[in-house]
Design brief:
Elements lengths: L11 H26 L24
């Protein structure tokens, strides 16, 4: 919803609605991006290439 109304002429409720619409659009875009990337959060740390394995003393294995 794009309006060209001067914010000085808008009521507080209209300005709040405009801000809410902008934030909702951003959240929808972010969620859509995360769905298309399919981030593998369900894999165990040992299967991810960027996680370094350590032993019980904290030294790299």
């Amino acid at each position: 919803m794009i309006t060209l109304t001067d914010p000085a002429r808008m009521t507080a409720e209209e300005r709040l609605d405009e801000v809410a619409a902008i934030l909702a659009t951003g959240v929808r875009r972010l969620l859509k991006k995360l769905e298309t990337e399919k981030i593998p959060l369900d894999k165990s740390p040992g299967t991810r290439p960027y996680v370094q394995k350590t032993n019980r003393t904290g030294e790299r294995a």
